[in-house]
Amino acid sequence: MFRNVAELIEQAEVQKLSISEVMIQQDMMVQERTREEVIQIMEKNLSVMESAVHRGITEEVTSHSGLTGGDARLLQDYMKSGKALSNNVMLDAVSKAMATNEVNAAMGMICATPTAGSAGVVPGTLFALDKKYELSAEQKINYLFTAGAFGFVVANNASISGAAGGCQAEVGTSTGMAAAAIVEVMEGTPKQSAEAMAIALKNMLGLVCDPVAGLVEVPCVKRNAMGASNALIAADMALAGIKSRIPCDEVIEAMYKIGQRMPIAHKETALGGLAATPTGKKLAEQIFSDK
Question: In terms of pTM, does the model score above 0.90?
Fold first, then answer.
């Protein structure tokens, strides 16, 4: 049983296991399930993620408020134009991250990863890599277990709640989870996964949770987009041998302390940040007056 990233990496190295395998074995022990049962549950999660991504990039998805919808498809079309500045893996990940959150905003089924508001980063990056590298079913499942291992550490040592720690705790955590999983699927080491998590998360520190009208739509959808791009860059840096000067566990602790000191107005109350701008207030009035 690992309690922090240092213990997770130590177990992986001593036992010569991947991070995903360490997480699978822990799930088997904690849930008192067989390996097949644990894998089966994750396969169901994967299926839900894939369906949400597919729906978001192929169908007209609009939220009930009208604030979000259609941006994932716009980016897919832009990728085909040949005018894009970023490479297609990056844009595909961003598009599929947004697709997931647009489906969530439209009351569709998604898999909280680690929360509904941050559910786009992990599947967005996963299915972008799948499109390029044609990942096996086992690789995709292991991707989710690796992401889950790092999410487990944050949930038990800090917070994954925007109401408790700001958006850094939600999209920040999902970004780190995705970065670590990308490293493993690209055959990096457990230590490199931890470096990627640290690099990704520390670049999300201080991110406030300021949903316009109190809805998980604006700016949440686009923050997942930025999280996906951040995760890919952090993974590339780690795979290149770049290290975080601050250890992963200390980055997680710093995020927790920042969240504790963050004003209530910036923790999912819709009282500050973008929600408190003139346009943010106007949108809230329009949405609730319609009801």
Answer: yes
